[in-house]
Give the backbone structure.
Amino acid sequence: MASYAYNADGLRMSRTVGGTTSDETWGEGAMPLLLQDGSTDYVYGPTGAPLEQISSSGTASFCHHDQAGSTRTMANSAGTVVATYTYDPYGNVHACTGATVTINGTNKCTGTITVTNPLMFQGQYRDNETNRYYLRARYCNPVTAQFLTVDPMVSTTRSPCAYVSGNPLNEADPSGAISQDALTQDEIDQIYAACSSWVQQSMCLQSAFCTGDDCHAVGQIAIDDYNIV
């Protein structure tokens, strides 16, 4: 059994699995990044992708990503690869080594378990106990490629539950609210800050994070109109 606790903004603050509770500490900003999970600390790059995790003993492991931002390998401080991951387009783990990826009660990975890494597909947090990704506003099931609840910005996205409108190779949705191409954390913060002053905030965000076939995030009608880049 697992349970989760959230703050007043709906951000997850802890997870309890098998009677053990791990507190979660998040950074500030429009797109909070997980800084500490239990006794493990995380360091991120300019796009918000996890670069490094540091255990309570001070042992560092380094994340290496593909073009979608998914963690494909983990290396130790000597540069030796200690874990690998292979995903389908929606984040299902097809194969892995050196880690623990539990699916239906069985570890999918082979080899000696060397690291524990929850930041996996597109750099987002996978709950080992449920095989679901926690994307801040909602949880996503990679098996069905669907969120468990309706998009809080469905009036803008027009996509109630589908993950990134069926386009996971080109888009990501780390907020669980609206898909976006790979942006730096600073760009994300600036977009949300600029849109927060609009009476019709959803229209502003729709232009900045356009998900339709005729536009792209940071596209022709996006950021320049708000003078934030």
